[in-house]
Amino acid sequence: MDLISEHRLSEMTPVEKVRFIIDEVKEGKILVLEKGLSPEEEASLIEMTMTFIEPDGFSGIEMESYPSEVDTSFLGKILKKNSTKSRLTVIGPADQLKTLKKDRNMISALVSNQK
Length: 115
Hints:
- This protein is α+β, with helices and mostly antiparallel strands and 115 residues long.
- It has a single domain, classed as 2-Layer Sandwich (Translation Initiation Factor IF3).
- It is built from four helices and eight strands, in the order E-H-H-E-H-E-E-H-E-E-E-E.
- The protein has a four-stranded mixed sheet with strand order 1-2-6-3.
C-alpha cells in the first residue's frame, strides 16, 4: 500500500496522474491519495482503465473517495467562494480491494492477496 501526498500529485499533469495510478495498480499496489482526483481525472482514469482490462489479467480498479466538502459558511456564500475541499481516495486492483462500507467520514475496505 502506498500513501501518496497531495504535493506529489500536484506536480503531475492530469494525464500523468492517471498513467501513474494505472501503472501502480496494475502492479498490484493499493494507493491512498491524500487529495482526491477531480471529476474529470476520475472519468479519465475509469475510461483509460477500461482499455487495459483483460479476461485472465488486469481486472480493473476499485476506487472510493470521501464525498467532497463545500464551503457553506456565511462568508463563503457572500463572497461566492467556490472552495470545494477534495478528500482522501483509495484506489486498488478490483480483484484485491473490496469496499465494505462508506459514509462521510469513513471507508471500510477488505484487502485480499488473491490474483
